[in-house]
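Hello,

I think I submitted the glutamine job twice by accident. Can you confirm which output corresponds to this input? Input:
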Amino acid sequence: LVRDTLAGIHATDADLAAFISVNDDAVAAAEAQDAAGIKADAPLAGIPIGIKDNIVTKGLTTTAASKMLANFTPIFDATVVEKLHAAGAITVGKLNMDEFAMGSSTENSAFHPTKNAWDHSRVPGGSSGGSAAAVAAGEIPVALGSDTGGSIRQPAAFNGIVGMKPTYGRVSRWGLIAFASSLDVIGTLTRTVRDSATVLNVIAGHDDRDATSATEPVPDFTAKIGDSIKGMRIALPEEYLGEGVDPKVTERIQAAATQLRALGATVETVSLPHTKYAVPSYYIIASSEASSNLQRFDGIRYGFRAKDVKNLDDVYVRSRSEGFGPEVKRRIMLGTFSLSAGFYDAYFKKAAQVRTLIAQDFAKVFADYDLVMGPTTPTPAFKLGERVSDPVTMYMNDILTIAVNLAGLPAISVPAGFVDGLPVGLQLIGPQFAEPTIYQAAAAFE
Ligand code: GLN
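Support: Only one job matched these inputs. Its output is below.
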């Protein structure tokens, strides 16, 4: 299986460009597992997986799609990778992404763009665009991604696959190259809902090495798959079908609501009134945290160092100027500004207050409903090159996914049909730790 998977990647990826690197030792790892005898408790024995390139892998280059880390080979595995390997999975390669996970199209990779699996003239979404395209194109059955503001769900929607962003803290972030630590979550990209739950079973759980890791017990995420959704109460926020959302996308979501009702659920319109503030508050909070997290890339400890530097300042300034791409620099500047003494109250503090209001909007709805539904993205995948030079248009694309991260909630994107021949996603959002209910509804819909 691993040998065939690698052959498939070599055949397809020259064109798709989903991978940054392929693990040439994967066959040896699989053979070693076969020779040792597959353990009975290895739910993913021999299953080839791809890992987003901001999750560290021992001995395998981990670049975060940045020139800054182009030659960085970690000396340890992220907790999620350790857990996957313990469950028998075989890492076959590292997947392309926007540099440091900043972006919505994978065009911010320092190496190359990735294509949408359905239409090679379009973006695969981002920042986990390589993960989504590789799974959708059949190169691999499972990929890990990270989701800070939609980076698992949006590319899953654009490629017609299943993308799960678990509750904040549900999965250890140890070994995930930090972007915005209060928002970052590792999750799965798969072709089916059951595959997603099966992999989440493996990677979830408390980890002492991540101070924000939840102590909540981990249920069997597949347990409610196949259960009826009769009587389930689902909320459809009016803001999620409003201005800026393609009417053909709205039509697909209304069709999904009809299907959920036919299965016995109730679907009612609600309001999440602070939705319009999610994008500005996210871009202040995420950029502020990024400006702090990315201070470690200083040309001294590890990563890129500029050549022919004259003094210490030169090391810092030139290494960072040459090592980071334009979007990363934009975020560092935006974040440093928002946190600076004169502007902290007006920007960072205000954004943090708005974040609380957004979380309260959801809490009010979840007092009466089991899940919230809506589209994952306002439009299907856009053309490569179409939005790279317009960051605000690019940021607005995240309007439907970002509030979920600000509130720390779990959410899935599942295929919801096609608009103009391109896949679109249905997003199902739950209260914290309600992943089993999300999987129950998602599987019924599938
Ligand atoms: N597109 C968003 C951003 O550019 C989200 C990225 C993510 O979730 N990593 O910040």
